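Sequence in, structure out. First:
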Amino acid sequence: MSTPAAAHLADVIRVCKKRPRGVRGWFTYWSKRSFVVAFGAYLLRGLREYARTLLLSPATVFSDPLSTILALLAFPAAALALAVLMLFFWLAGILGGRQIVNWISRNYANGLSTANWPNPNIFGSSSNAAVQSARDILSGETDTTVVQEASLDDDNPDFSQLRTTRVFSLPLARALLLMSSLIYERDDFLVEDAARIVLNAQDKYDEDSNEYNAQVAQAEALLQQSERPIQMQATRWDLSADVVSELASIGGPCAAIFYTPIDSGAAPFIVLVLKGTTPTRPQEFLTDATFTKTGAGVFFGAGSGKVHEGFYEHLFMRNDSDDNGGDGYGSIVRTLRHVAQRMKAGAGSAQADTKIPLWVTGHSLGAALASLMYARFLHSEEDLGPNLDLRDCYAFACPRVGDSNFATSFEESLIKPLDRKNILWRIRNHRDIVASVPPGFADQESLRNSLSSTSFLNYAFLGPAIRIRPKRIPYRAPYYTVEQGGAFHEATEVVVANAEGDAGAGRMEGQVGRTAAGGDDLAQLAQESGRVRAAMAGDEWSVLAAIIALAPSFLYNHGESSFVPPASYMAHLDNVVSSSDMATLERAAAAQQQRPLQPLATGVRRLAGAVAGETSARVRQVRREVQA
């Protein structure tokens, strides 16, 4: 059994060992197994926050009336919507909803999970091209932050002209989005079956007995089977993939790694992927809809503020919890360090002294968890050990995760040192409702001091955002905007790069310019580029995708589909790629049109210089004659 697989089995055993103690522990335990109990716990948690505010901070009811009104309206509205959702899932369970979902998946979605139904062709053969196009960046051969320094030969440098270039890589974004999509293909039901076997073994047998080991072996086989779709697709991408942690619950959000196979000889890298909300698991919607916050000082330092309680409890332990919370972060870090150590041991001599790049990504709830993981890595990079090199985080459809103090603390980490080489990019789709919740006014630094710590509106996003938009009126190319959000200093320049291995716009232009100079036909180049984009988008028509496309855009745009209209994350990234390709081709065409005129222009300049020289000589001669 491989190291990640062993870590996953040990993690399942760890989670199963947690048994309820006290009323709160009972609710925590059973809410992970029953959506009815989970909904009851959600209601009690909301009422608890109301009581805390009235008892501990009664003045805020009058000092922050807007927050009070929204809290009184938002929680009941969310509870009502969730009650309807719970009723729907209950009826679906009675009417055989699981069998219906499986039938639709087999016949119309290539066997994919509901999260990937909008694009059943997302993992087609061309997805390999998308992953391979980002390989140079993933392996660390191309930097995504380029710091311009003054030349030592310049005695009087103009420091105002020096720039720090932050590269948002489109090939990297697409590759990480594919990995974030693939993690949804884990069979959560098999994981739950494995957990039931472990629970039964823990209740009936001693851990040193043969009977216990036999039961655990059965659970291990089910866990391996649950990950088989992920591993098969990863193999097509020339990668290994393993789920490494169940975080705080079984069959819900989890953590997986995609990495270069050990002893493969390829340039090594690791991508940590956090799984988002499974559409068929109502318990996870309750986590997303939580409005309460909890202190983050233990893992992020004193004064670091508060974070979303539901997100935090998936990753970090708390000393006042009846079951001490989850230790997802600890299990992930220990596995990462061990895998990196094995990869280093199997690397060639040329890579023996090179750290292994670590990237972080996730979608939806997974993006929120990825953001918290990344924030902790920035706060304590020593956790990763001597063999890992922290790179960028790409968080797709990420909700707000913390209050004003937490956002300020995170932004401090992003600019300490001032030109640090890694950053968190938050990719936000047009009108994605999840990327707008919880409601908050703490995004703007100027407003943070005006918000009380208990305010319902004291929520903020983490990191700069790339907002991507559909290719339709009233939007125009390049179909994205950069929302900096305090993560950059004045000398920072953001480059959204499309070409493989780009380090900035200038280099991208140079590469295409050399292609054009080599005699390639621009029309053929555009046609090939269009075919690649269409293939990556999975443009084979799908009945299921067409039906899902009729959903309201604020709901549909939260998905990873590339079927348009309406647009979603992969499709919107394709729009940015398309506009970037067209701009590059136009520059190359302009360069070709100017090239035939260059000899004529050179001749004109030489003739003008000769005439000017003769005229100057004649003027000097006339002056001498006059003086004589």
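Second:
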Amino acid sequence: MVRHFPIDSTVCAILIGSTFLVFLTLVALGLRCWGRYYNGTKLYWDDYLAILSSAQGVAILVIQGMWSTMGEGLPFAAVNRNNLVMTKMLLIVFELLYATCTATIKFSVLFFYLRIFSVQVGSTLGKLVQCALAFVTLWTVGNLLQVYLICTPFEASYDDEFVGACGNRIASYIGIGAFNVVADFAIMSLPMSVIWSLQIDRSSKIGLTVVFFLGFITTGISLVRMISLPRDLELSNLTQSMVWPVFWTTLEVHISILCINVPTLAYVLRYFTNPRGARSVASDPMPASPGPLRSVQGRRQTGMDFELDLFTPSSGSGPQRHSFPSGRPNQYGTRATCEAVSPAEPVAPEEGVQVTQDRTVQYMRAGRLAALSH
């Protein structure tokens, strides 16, 4: 029978911190879903994957809590055999959750790119995203296989009474972490060429770059985790040495979940800073007045809302016409025929479009970048 021990003070502090992080991730996820609901838009694949990753993060916290009462932080010799077997069995589940959760987070980011940039299959960015999806899929399959194949027979991975052969588990953890760092950097770099090609000022480009590079926080934690594993983790004294490696692993997961929700909270921030303006956008994502443009069909959008809006001074001379596709939504939620004219001189508004001259508005919305003038 599994015996329960008093919680070690260090383990207790780490568990409290992890619980607080999970609370923050759930709040961020709730605001993300609320923003979708309030704006009248449907959830997309990146939203569903974010929900799934949050559920996996909660499961990781539950395992962390179970370990805390089973002898985590105590010397190996002070823990009975049943606790050791259960600890190692939970470690296998923990590894599976880590592999699937990190993959779910990466898939969420990639589908987020597909939505806000309306990536076409044959485009350069589309091909890069497809390659990234394939890489993450293969990487995840390899992670899952190593959990089952690291020891022969499999029972030897959690019960020392089984005679078998096991590979270097710490080396496998470090290898997984290294691939994780490379994958994170590659995925974060994908939209940079699109962002820096936008017709906006440099400070706005830098701001967007910072938002998309929030994942570097996770990369830094991954590097610390890779350093901690060979230094702190001793499988022969697992219960006492697992405290800090488990902390860095859970911290990496929870910060990653938090980071994927931050770029989607632009609408929520706009609501709290300007509730009336947010309400008008929510009631009509393409408002007739006041606002930069009106849908030609006059229909309310039912797809994805815009994520970011960037205001920059108008530049250049001569009329500039910007349009984006309409009609039935494509696979990324793009819809509604709209057109805006940026004139050198004031002109009479076209049907369905209100035109002024002072500022140019770029909306990243409905999976499409639309440059407008008002």
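Remark: Confidence is low (pLDDT under 50) at residues 279-374.
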